[in-house]
Backbone:
């Protein structure tokens, strides 16, 4: 690359025609080559540790300070740097100027996802080939790779988007603003409705212009749009207002319009998701060989959750159903509900009984049956009134084949199978022949427990997996209890007659136990770490990160110090949430150990620091113990023990639980936020007499309680007047300075 060969601004002013085209291309190629060289410099500085010569803890701080770049831009380049280490084809094409900077950065975002990294590395050449497309098409490819390469993460993102849906209409400075967000399943219909109304507004303006005799030739640009009464922006706002007013003026009980949204989904993905929904194997991540052929999106290019698409096909309106591998289509008309022969064809292809109480027996056992096995005793009572018979309900056929079947029960089962609509006689379906009611209470409690477990997994999976296994085990046991309750009811049948007192006592005990279990699961759900904290667990920048089921250990690989930090997380906070705040300490040369507490409550394992402090196999012989919030209180309790290896106490938005003012030989630093709504400045001042007189207090002006980690907002917290990044930088700098004084001693 020869930058001097490029035209100067003065020379550009004299260019015209094809020369301008050539100059623009030359500048873009030079920009790409410069970016490749820039990233190579960062990689070299990171590999050699050169950034420490200027006193910086990381290559990010060195690059930001030296070039006066924005932290966001530096972070993007570092992300690109890490990706290009594993992607030789992308690195070579960027250096040649054949691939754009933004395309490489988008690939680097995929590479930053640990669950997608192997797919991106294997598909290096294929992704670079896709990058030659226009940027919009390339973005669709990346969305597709992210969706099918990490199906669990894609479903979680769709669920989080749906859970966090929001809409606001507010006035500011005399202007009304609208803001809304939702998942793509709901948003696709909104986009279709809104676009239809915008088209209607445009046609109204066009017809009015034609009626007014507008002459497009009179406009010096020859643009007919200048003759329309409204601009595109004005028509969009009027379309939204008209939709809202039309909804308000609709008569109560009137049917809402159903927008037509076309979803494109390949048969392989449909079959896999349908199998998973019916209790089969979970959807597997895509491979490089098939990811480009997988699709689940609207014809407008909006990515749709595969589960939402399958549900829409089963419950909504469709236009076509692909039924074979050759791509032949059953045309059900422009708009028709999924019923009749097409629905039967799909259902007959399955193996799941439509009536959950029926389970197909082993064929070899049928001839030897003297009485219905336990799992088929439910056939002694009528099935639900609306149960539709089906070839997949093989239990009925097998039961009718029993040689010793009671004639009355055979007649009842035959009546069920012979009725084409599945309608029964007027016999009550909620009681059996003895008048006993089925056990509906356990089913309700079991379903509620199962829903809470699913909700916990869907909303806090990162925190559940990254924390101590205690909560995960509790969730799995709770799910087993829920399944056991439901299975017991379905297999055991109605209970024997009992007194009303015993019945209500059993129900009260069941409800109380279920409420206690559900309340515990809801209360103990961890505050999950945000992506920036999870990304900080990657190796690099002179730090090796080891994650086990009990600790997260950050070990410096260059110039390690003699002092380490043993850290207790705050109450119910995912330990991973502190990785980004504490990583600069490790990058400065201090070993950092973050403990994973049972149920993320430090009070349940006060002596967790014994695992490292005093351990003869550990290379660090002098330790500072610290913690955030409740973790800091437990750390102060642990620091009351006079141990030779324990030399310091570091408190983050915390204060001691007891009086340790007489504790000698212990350096103490208390870092707090002035806008903290939980550990308020008044609380910090009130407990100052409980700490040694030599304690150093570091208030972070404008910081709040949740700034000491990365786990999202916290109920009861204050309002910050400083950015999270600035506050966390001050927290890390104060901690490093404190530990450096201990290392100097």
Residues:
């Amino acid at each position: 690359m020869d930058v001097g060969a490029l035209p100067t601004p003065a020379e550009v002013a004299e260019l015209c025609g094809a020369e301008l085209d050539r100059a623009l291309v030359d500048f873009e190629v030079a920009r790409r080559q410069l970016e490749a060289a820039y990233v190579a410099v960062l990689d070299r500085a990171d590999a050699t540790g050169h950034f420490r010569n200027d006193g910086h803890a990381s290559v990010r701080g060195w690059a930001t300070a030296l070039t006066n770049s924005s932290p966001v831009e530096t972070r993007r380049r570092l992300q690109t740097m890490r990706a290009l280490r594993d992607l030789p084809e992308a690195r070579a094409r960027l250096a040649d100027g054949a691939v754009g900077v933004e395309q490489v950065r988008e690939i680097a975002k995929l590479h930053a996802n640990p669950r997608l990294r192997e797919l991106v590395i294997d598909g290096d050449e294929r992704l670079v080939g896709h990058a030659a497309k226009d940027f919009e098409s390339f973005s669709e490819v990346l969305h597709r790779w992210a969706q099918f390469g990490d199906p669990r993460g894609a479903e979680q993102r769709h669920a989080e988007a749906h859970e966090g849906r929001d809409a606001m209409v507010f006035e500011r400075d005399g202007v009304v603003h609208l803001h809304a967000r939702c998942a793509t399943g709901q948003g696709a219909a909104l986009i279709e409705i809104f676009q239809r109304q915008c088209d209607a507004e445009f046609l109204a303006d066009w017809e009015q212009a034609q009626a007014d005799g507008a002459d497009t030739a009179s406009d010096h640009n020859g643009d007919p749009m200048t003759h329309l009464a409204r601009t595109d922006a004005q028509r969009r706002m009027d379309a939204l207002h008209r939709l809202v007013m039309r909804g308000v003026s609709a008569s109560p009980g009137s049917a809402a319009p159903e927008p037509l949204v076309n979803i494109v989904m390949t048969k392989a993905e449909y079959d896999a998701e349908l199998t998973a929904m019916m209790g089969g194997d979970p959807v597997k991540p895509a491979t490089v060989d098939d990811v480009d052929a997988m699709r689940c999106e609207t014809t407008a290019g909006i990515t749709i959750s595969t589960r939402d698409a399958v549900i829409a096909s089963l419950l909504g309106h469709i236009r076509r159903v692909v039924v074979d591998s050759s791509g032949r289509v059953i045309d059900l008309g422009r708009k028709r509900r999924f019923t009749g022969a097409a629905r039967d064809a799909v259902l007959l292809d399955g193996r799941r009984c439509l009536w959950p109480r029926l389970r197909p027996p082993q064929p070899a056992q049928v001839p030897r049956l003297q009485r219905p096995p336990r799992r088929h005793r439910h056939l002694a009572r009528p099935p639900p009134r609306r149960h539709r018979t089906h070839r997949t309900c093989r239990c009925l056929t097998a039961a009718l084949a029993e040689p010793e079947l009671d004639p009355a029960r055979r007649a009842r089962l035959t009546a069920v199978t012979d009725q084409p609509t599945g309608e029964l006689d007027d016999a009550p379906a909620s009681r059996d022949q003895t008048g006993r009611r089925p056990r509906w209470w356990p089913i309700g409690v079991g379903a509620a427990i199962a829903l809470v477990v699913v909700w916990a997994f869907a909303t806090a999976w990162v925190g559940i997996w990254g924390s101590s296994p205690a909560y995960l085990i509790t969730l799995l046991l709770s799910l087993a209890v829920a399944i056991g309750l439901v299975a017991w009811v379905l297999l055991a049948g109605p209970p024997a007659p009992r007194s009303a007192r015993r019945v209500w006592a059993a129900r009260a005990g069941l409800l109380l136990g279920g409420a206690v279990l559900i309340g515990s699961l809801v209360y103990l759900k961890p505050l999950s770490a945000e992506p920036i904290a999870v990304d900080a667990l990657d190796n690099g920048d002179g730090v090796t990160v080891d994650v086990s089921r009990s600790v997260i250990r950050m070990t410096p690989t260059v110039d390690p110090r003699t002092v380490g930090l043993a850290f207790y997380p705050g109450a119910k906070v995912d330990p991973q949430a502190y990785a980004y705040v504490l990583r600069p300490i490790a990058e400065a040369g201090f070993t950092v150990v973050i403990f994973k507490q049972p149920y993320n409550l430090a009070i349940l394992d006060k002596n967790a620091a014994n695992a490292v402090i005093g351990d003869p196999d550990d290379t660090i012989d002098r330790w500072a113990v610290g913690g955030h919030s409740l973790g800091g209180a437990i750390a102060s309790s642990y620091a009351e023990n006079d141990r030779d290896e324990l030399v310091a106490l570091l408190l983050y938005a915390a204060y001691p639980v007891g009086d340790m003012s007489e504790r000698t030989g212990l350096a103490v630093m208390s870092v707090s936020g002035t806008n903290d709504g939980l550990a308020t400045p008044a609380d910090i001042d009130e407990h100052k007499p409980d700490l040694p007189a030599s304690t150093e207090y570091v208030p972070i002006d404008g910081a709040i309680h949740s700034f000491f980690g990365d786990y999202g907002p916290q109920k009861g917290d204050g309002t910050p007047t400083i950015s999270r990044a600035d506050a966390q930088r001050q927290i890390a700098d104060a901690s490093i300075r404190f530990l450096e004084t201990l290392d100097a001693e």
